[in-house]
Design brief:
The chain is α/β, with parallel strands linked by helices. The protein contains twelve helices and eight strands. The chain has one domain: TIM Barrel, CATH 3.20.20. The longest helix is centred in the C-terminal third of the chain and has 20 residues. The protein is globular, with a radius of gyration of 17 Å.
């Protein structure tokens, strides 16, 4: 049985002081919740402070991005060596990195290999835009993203990777996919592609999240689906009571 995993992607929000205040509230809210893996992904400047504030808790810390090189002339980039000791997880290939900053499938693949080589647990994001969705291209596009990202990744390495299916048309729009619709893509396309690459045993062991306008009011709709193992939460992760509500509801749903 796959343990649920809910992560919060704060994107470009929260000063260091605000970040510490948020995780202190979150730590108190989730003190007795153990049936779900939880992580928060603050901006780079707040990573050290958040890591310290969460020391000794069961809440993990993740980075929102990472360069594939250990060092070099890459102004503004952050390397895996700089993240060592500050986080366990790292988000790779978020749609905003792909669309706003020009990250290609090849770059995502390089980052995935680097993250694995340095002992991080990647959260790999895939998802189609509205035009692709409406044109019936979701399966081909998302399956292609999965195959490209996992190129050269061994079955043993694949087991530690979490995939987050985030349809671009649902991110931050307030219009999420339906639980049933997300379950079809996650089970048939994402896990189906992983099965083709690594076999059923590995694919069934891997966790796949849904992301896109997840809120306390709709988390049960997603977590009640058999193929959905968690959520990558955006805006609702910026409020301790909302994110804690998502974790509690999602964890309870999977425990039934």
């Amino acid at each position: 049985m796959r343990k649920p995993f809910i992560a919060g992607n704060w994107k470009m929000h929260k000063t260091i002081a605000e970040a510490v205040e948020l995780v202190r509230e979150l730590r108190a809210e989730l003190a007795g919740v153990t049936g779900c893996d939880v992580a928060v992904c603050p901006p780079f400047p707040a990573l050290a402070a958040v890591h310290e504030a969460l020391s000794g808790s069961h809440i993990g810390v993740g980075a929102q991005n990472m360069h594939w090189e250990e060092q070099g002339a890459f102004t503004g980039a952050v390397s895996p060596l700089m993240l060592a000791g500050l986080c366990d997880y790292v988000i790779i290939g978020h749609s905003e990195r792909r669309n706003l900053f020009g990250e290609t499938d090849e770059m995502v693949n390089e980052k995935l290999h680097t993250a694995l080589a340095h002992g991080f647990k990647p959260i790999l994001c895939v998802g189609e835009n509205l035009d692709q969705n409406q044109a019936g291209e979701t399966e081909a596009f998302v399956g292609g993203q999965v195959r490209a990202a996992f190129a050269g990744v061994t079955a043993e390495q694949a087991r530690v990777i979490t995939v987050a299916y985030e349809p671009i048309w649902a991110i931050g729009t307030g219009v999420p996919a339906t639980g049933e619709g997300a379950n079809v893509i996650i089970g048939g396309t994402v896990r189906g592609t992983l099965t083709a690459l690594y076999g059923d045993d590995v694919a069934q062991a891997m966790r796949i999240q849904y992301g896109g306008s997840v809120k306390p009011a709709n988390i049960v709709e997603f977590m009640s689906q058999p193929e959905i193992d968690g959520a990558l939460v955006g805006g609702a992760s910026l409020r301790a009571v909302d994110f804690a509500g998502i974790v509690k509801e999602g964890s309870a749903c999977k425990a039934q």
